[in-house]
Amino acid sequence: MRPLSDRYGLRLRLMIMSLVLVLLATLAIGAAVTWNYSRLAKNDLLTRVGIETEIIIQNVSVSILFDDRATAQEIISTFSADPSVLSAELYNKEGELFSQYQADVESLKTASFEFKREIIFQEEIIGYMLVEVSNQEIRQQNFAILVFLVTVSLIVLVVAFSFSHPLINSTIQPLLKLHDTSQRIAETGDYSLRSPVTSSDEVGRLSLAFNQMLNQIEHRDDMLEKQVRQRTTELEKLAEEFRYRAFHDNLTGLPNRALMDERFEHSVEHTLRCDNRFACLLLDLDDFKTINDTKGHEFGDDLLIEVAKRLKATVRAEDLVCRIGGDEFLILLNDLKSPDDVNTIARKILTRLGREFVLKSERFKTGVSIGGALFPDHGTSASEIKRHADVAMYRAKAAGKNQFCIFTEGMQDDVKYRLLIKNDLKPAIARGDFEIYVQPKINAVDNQIVGCEALVRWNHPQEGFLTPDKFIPFAEEAGLISDIDYFVIRESCRKQKEWTTLFNFPIPIAFNLSGRHFHDFKIVEVLQNAIDEFAIDPSLLEAEITEAVLIEDPEKAQKIVHAVKALGICISLDDFGTGYSSLNYLRTLPIDTVKLDRSFVSNIVESVQDRRLTRGIVSLAQGLNLRLIAEGVENEKQMNALMELGCFFMQGFYFLRPVKTSDFLQWHLKRYTKSILSRQRA
Ligand code: C2E
Ligand code: CA
Ligand code: CA
Questions:
Q1: Which residue among 90, 210, 234, 440 has its CA within the 20 to 30 Å range from the CA of 583?
Q2: Strand 541-545 versus strand 570-576 pairing type
């Protein structure tokens, strides 16, 4: 059970208290007045009835003396004039009832009192009288007083209430307001609320003190809130910075791999919902490592920043350009209308990035290889699309860089061979899984062997027999081509020595050198070592190079080619007629032989234009005093056509496919024997 103070408010309690006090005071006064009045009324009654009794006693004493009962009776009956006298009994001195009076109202007897008076005649008691008096009169008077008092009390209460109510209200109101304010603050936590100060008394001062306390709390609160706000802003800023750092690339400010992953998933979901397509372009700057190594990291960084700017400026705002690695960028082209759009955009990127950069006041050009894959055409998940764009990008690199390739199913093999190269190449060379095949070079005029070319093969334990197109591009890409070429150089020298010393067959042997060798002089050292090790005549060695050697650093490459030439080794320009075919190379490089590319030969019979071009190359070679050899001769017609045009040195399946060195030797010995026999017969 709750205490009284909880159940009734302060106002009610004060009201009840004041009214109870007023009531008690009224009652106390009423009781005193009533008591006094009833005492006085009783005295009055006794005096009156006493006087009546005295008068009657005086009149009746004679009747007693004369024993006149009738008169006594008559006299005593005069008490009937006073309704308060209930009965009167007159006794003689012997104590006998002499006469009596009895009032009619019997019921009043209950509340009465009596008194006794002696009757004295000449100082002698001659009898006495017992008078019984009713209280009724006093009671009635008391009742009237009570009614009066109650009425007065009520009036006093009403008056007290009407006076005390505003008084209490005025006293208690500020307290209640104080209470209200504190309660509202407790409920809302709003410390800006204030209690009104309506007086300067204790309650007013209490309100004032309360408000001051609130001021302090609010001030402290404000300070705290300010501090918290400041701290929160700092934290938010920090979090934002962290988020930015986590999702953006420091150098270019582009989204990084993490953000790309998120957006990629988003693009997949969006595309599935809207039933359209998006493209993923993977870009890798060509030869960025060389740029970094030769021009310095700062230059490389500046280039990346510029590339990022151009990429952003090329695509639409809703497309996403990210930097996902050193020189790798990824672009998401959302909501493509047609699959062809990706071609258009990729070409635009190639054009824009192909334009000159001015970095550190140096004019500079670079290429980029782009691979593309479409969702959902080329994969069902973000990771698959990314993988396929990567495959296409490597294909673009392998196909000569600075170009765009869109993914096709056939490219899957690339991935396999790239892995193969990465993991198996070195142990394969050590194990002797590589082998050189040779193909003869023939002088079609007398059908004599003028040389041969060493072509590498890989006998992979799981993949089987692999031709160079399956692994050379990936070995170049992985920077492992040198290991293959060094192996081929040593094997070529070994065979050359063997054929010369054992079979008196001193035939020139050619080996292919990747363009990758032509940025340092290591290849010169390797060649020199091989020549020394096998003690062979360097003029019987031939290095086949392509124009690609000059792409990265033409000046240095030229120096290296000259150094190779200086060893006494012959230089052949391979695949002539394809690629840039700058005739300048023919003058700047120390070339002995030009190898006419197979593509001219394959159409030479049918194509007038190819014949015309071939004739041009023939006269060019003659003019520069270079030996010309045609590659890929597959039939007699092609051979004849070439001879007609003035090209007499040839290589091709028509004469012999590339074969094992042992088979090559047998083939040669057979031909040699045959020719000797025919000569003898002749
Ligand atoms: P390449 O230097 O132009 O070599 C000639 C390619 O033409 C050889 O392909 C050869 O098998 C092929 N060939 C020869 N005659 C004919 C013909 O009549 N018809 C047709 N269709 N093809 C013919 P292979 O052996 O597959 O080599 C391909 C390329 O791989 C070579 O082209 C060369 O660029 C590269 N390569 C081969 N061995 C090496 C090597 O040891 N080091 C380097 N760096 N590259 C090599
Ligand atoms: Ca070759
Ligand atoms: Ca060739």
A1: 440
A2: parallel
Pocket residue to mutate for ligand 1, from 455, 481, 509, most atoms within 8 A of Cβ: 455
**Distance separating alpha carbons of residues 393 and 395, to the nearest angstrom:** 5
pLDDT at site 495: 97
**Structure-model confidence comparison of residues 152 and 305, the more confident one:** 305
CA separation for the pair 364, 70 (Å, rounded): 168
Which of 419, 411, 331 shows the shortest CA–CA distance to 368? 331
Under 8 Å between Cβ of 141 and 37: yes
CB 221 within 8 A of CB 214: no
Among the ranges given (190-194, 316-320, 562-566), the one the predictor scored with the smallest mean pLDDT: 190-194
Provide the 3-class DSSP secondary structure of residue 230: helix
| Third-level CATH fold of 257-409 | Alpha-Beta Plaits (3.30.70)
Report how far residue 484's alpha carbon sits from residue 562's, in angstroms, rounded to the nearest whole number. 22
Name the 3-class secondary structure at 185: helix
Cβ of 465 less than 6 Å from ligand 1: no
DSSP of 249-267, one letter per residue? -TTT--B-HHHHHHHHHHH
> 483 CB under 6 A from ligand 1?
no
Is there an atom of ligand 1 within 6 Å of 491 CB? no
- φ and ψ at 339, to 5 degrees? -60, -25
Residue 440 and residue 651 in contact, taking contact as beta carbons nearer than 8 Å: yes
CA of 115 to the centre of ligand 2 (A): 167
Query: Which stretch of DSSP H or E encloses residue 129?
Result: strand 124-134
Average of per-residue pLDDT across 472-476: 85
C-alpha distances (whole Å) from 670 to each of 516, 662, 667, 677 are 39, 12, 5, 10
Residue among 356, 372, 373, 370 at smallest CA distance from 402: 370
323 close to 263: Cβ distance less than 8 angstroms? no
Indicate the pLDDT class of residue 419, thresholds 50, 70 and 90.
confident
Beta-carbon contacts of 611 under 8 Å, excluding residues fewer than 6 positions away, are 604, 641, 645
Q: What is the model's pLDDT at position 106?
A: 59
The ligand 1 atom nearest the CA atom of 488 = 41
Q: From atom 25 of ligand 1, which residue's Cα is the shortest distance away? A: 455
Tell me: the pLDDT tens digits for 69-110? 888 899 999 888 888 888 899 998 888 999 999 887 655 556
- The residue ranges of every structural domain in the chain are 4-222, 257-409, 424-671
- pLDDT higher than threshold 90 for residue 312: yes
1 pLDDT tier (thresholds 50, 70, 90): low
Please say whether the beta carbons of 549 and 515 come within 8 A. yes
CATH number for the domain formed by residue range(s) 424-671: 3.20.20.450
Give me ligand 1 centre to Cα 455, in Å: 6
Q: What is the pLDDT of residues 43-63, one digit of tens each?
A: 888 888 889 889 988 888 888
Rg (C-alpha) for the chain, rounded Å, is 67
Tell me the C-alpha distance between 82 and 86, whole Å: 9
Position 657 pLDDT exceeds 80: yes
Mean pLDDT of 587-600: 91
Percent of the chain, pLDDT > 70? 97
Instruction: Give 25's Cβ-side CA count (13 Å radius).
Output: 9
Q: Establish whether residue 572 lines the binding site of ligand 1, counting it when its CB lies within 6 angstroms of any ligand atom.
A: no
Mean pLDDT, to the nearest integer, of 547-576? 90
Q: Is the CB of 568 under 6 A from ligand 1?
A: no
Q: Does residue 480 carry a pLDDT above 70?
A: yes
Q: Would you say the CB of residue 632 lies under 6 angstroms from ligand 1?
A: yes
Mean pLDDT of 234-248: 82
